[in-house]
Amino acid sequence: MRKIVNSTFVSLDGVINHMDRWHFGFIDDELEALALDQMRASDALLLGRHTYDIYASAWPARDGELADRINVIAKYVASTTMQTADWTNTTIIGGGLVEEITKLKDAHGKNILMHGYGPVAKTLMRHGLLDELCLWVHPVLAGVGTTEDMIWGEDVHARLELEDVKTLASGIVMLTYRAAV
């Protein structure tokens, strides 16, 4: 069975959105190398609609090994409103999210990497389908957003076990948790 690994950037105050205000100053070679390692361990990328729209407008125009990998990998976007997807190798999951993700997990292959921790990730967590949560905790208080921009979510309660901790030179602490059994 494949694992779903969620990899999310988060500020110290729990903000996962508005990254233009707090994230981009922390991008360096070390961060990109770790992100590429995650991509190499995966053969699919799962995205919610919001993250997909941002990625599809940015990554096709970028160069480099990470961009090349993101652009060619199989992509699954969860959206009940999208009709078509123009980005290479994209499949739309239009309904039955839990059932469709269960099928993807049951298929043979490497990890399914998920970027972003919005409604789709919270649904997967509620249903016990998220196997690993990798939080890239940035040493900054974002000071922006609403409850919709935060990592926590109503009715999302899950016990996790710490699997790994990496401290990057930038001060980002990468906390990797697995679902507790």
List the helices and strands and how they pair.
Layout: E1 4-11, H1 29-40, E2 42-48, H2 49-58, H3 65-72, E3 74-78, E4 90-93, H4 97-106, E5 111-115, H5 119-126, E6 132-138, E7 160-167, E8 173-179
Parallel strand pairs: 1-5, 1-6, 2-3, 2-5, 3-4
Antiparallel strand pairs: 6-8, 7-8
Helix pairs in contact: 1-3
Structure explained in plain terms:
- Helices cover 27% and strands 28% of the residues.
- With 181 residues, it is of the alpha/beta class.
- The mean pLDDT is 95.
- The relative contact order is 0.25.
- The chain contains five helices and eight strands.
- The protein has one domain: Dihydrofolate Reductase, subunit A (3-Layer(aba) Sandwich).
- An eight-stranded mixed sheet has the order 4-3-2-5-1-6-8-7, with helices on both faces.
- Helix 1 packs parallel to helix 3.
- The radius of gyration is 16 Å and the shape is globular.
